[in-house]
Amino acid sequence: MTTPDGGKWPLLLLVGIPALLAAFLTITSLLRLLPMELWWYAISATDATDPRQLLYRHAFLPRVAISLLAGAALGLAGTLLQQTLRNPLAEPTTIGTNAGASIALTIATLYAPWTLEHGKEWVALAGGAVATLLVFGLVKGRRFSPIAIIIAGLVISLTCSSAGALLMAINREYSQELYIWQSGSLVQNGDATLFILLPWFALSCIVAFILLSPLRLLDLGDESVTSLGMSPAAIRLAGIGLAVALSAAVVAAVGVIGFVALAAPALVRIAGARTLRQRMIWAPVAGATLLWLTDRMVQVLPFASEIPAGTATAFLGAPLLLFLLPKMQFLPDPQGIMLSRHRRNGWLLLPPILAMLAALIWVVLAVGYDGVGWHWATGTELTELLPLRAPRVAVSLAAGVMLAIAGTLMQRMTGNPMAAPEVLGVSGGASLGVLLLFVMSPTLGRPAMLVAAFAGALVSLVIVAPTGSRRARSPERLLLAGVAVGTIASAFSAVVLASGDPRLDTLLAWLSGSTYRATPIDAFIAVLVAVAALAIVPFTARWLEVLPLGGTAARGLGLRLDRVRAILLVLVSASTAVATLVIGPLSFVGLMAPHLARMLGFQRALPQLFASAMLGGLILVCADWAGRMLIFPWQIPAGLLAALIGGPCFMLLIARRRQ
Predict the structure, then answer these.
(1) Residue of 158, 281, 384, 454 with fewest CB within 10 Å of its CB?
(2) pLDDT digits over 132-141, tens only?
(3) Is residue 501 part of a domain?
(4) Which residues contact 479 (CB under 8 A, 6 or more apart)?
């Protein structure tokens, strides 16, 4: 694509084609808004009596300018992070910086607005810095492995997102405004934001080019840098600090814009920008044109409400992530990503766990808060409450069992201790199938939704699995491919939410993992499938013991790998599809339960499957009950609460691997 000397034609085409298309869309919109002869006049002497001139001067032009400026800032931030971390997937979204800045601004807006008096940028900077430091703290013992940084960043991002969604659920009067801002909106009302972001970007550019020579030395390796009398840690700290500050300023200005910081440096590198200087020049230009074009395109889509630009950029970044994965080189990671294993006989703990689960079910059916105080229902009162509470408890229990089984099967099948339906995009694929049905069909019958969820889950596994198996020991590719599929599903859900469909209330409740619409039919289907899964998985125990040994050993022991994997994929897809159908796309339950079982000593496949199933049910039953009680009479969806609890637990599991 490029000449040996790094010719600039590919770079010019990369920037020029999107810029020409964005300019065409911009001029077309301008002509509809205001005659050409008034364009310059409306800038220099706006007529306050003409609404068209006011929109042109205070909304249209600032929006174009902020899209260019924010895109350029993200392109530079991504270049700095990728150079300092030596990681082509590093960007403010994947290392948790954007999520930290976003949750800090959300908390400040709701509970400490006085902290915003001196500028939102400083609050965002503090939040982004804390999140980034937490990521590095989690992976410090693993020598800042690139894949470890990305995984820790994604976990922190999902945890912060769950916390933000919880805050919006508690503060419903601000939920719509916060949702639009968190999704990355470029809508402007004047040029104040533009003139706040511009000095940050200008100063960052100056500092970045001052750091150019030290940053370029990182290509030589830490030992060479040290021999030249410089500190690699100090250089990385300066580069990361500058990128975090720039990212925080963008979040404060327009919200979270994902993947532009990943796409711009990657594309200019492919187009021939080989040196750091070239990437630092061309990546901001590419980022500016990409975000400009994206923002122009979302405004011409036929939806009742506008899709936030941050959501639209996910459609660009996630496929790019899938495209880049096969080209990436991952260092061997003999430590694994998660816990070391305890060697104990776990069978003896199954009866106590089962007794605990039975007691919990009785408690959540009988105990509740009625606005006056806590109350234990008995006799006739309990009988009257059972039709309301029992379906929710049954659905939560069955969904937890199915997700835990799916997570255990995936971890043993792939040899990847971080595999789970939620992490590898299987839940996202199931939800995407239901969303596509939502768009194409005027009705949402349960049988059709089940088929759509199953098809989506199976297709996502088919997409992800080949990416993870390109090399025998590459579970990291499997993880990141799953993240890409999940991102596509999330972005599509945001598009559907912007469609203005009158059925969105039901869809919103389902997407957040709420059980308050659970019916006896839902409970019956979920319990039936969960029981069927528990009855089938014992026949897979031998396969699950052998598969972690590798393909060669498995074939030597007589396994027909293609058939075994196909059967396991169907089991995982069916369990995930039904769980997603009845309770929505949850997070972390399918990941946490197998690890909790392993921590308790369940090492063999069969006892781990049963223990994981009981623990998964226990987690979701607890989450559903707590969601009903914590902010009564309002409710927190069980899936949201499980994700909020699961994120910190996941971080602890990662931290346990530090040396």
Answers:
(1) 384
(2) 998 888 877 6
(3) no
(4) 147, 151, 416, 418, 419, 423, 424, 468
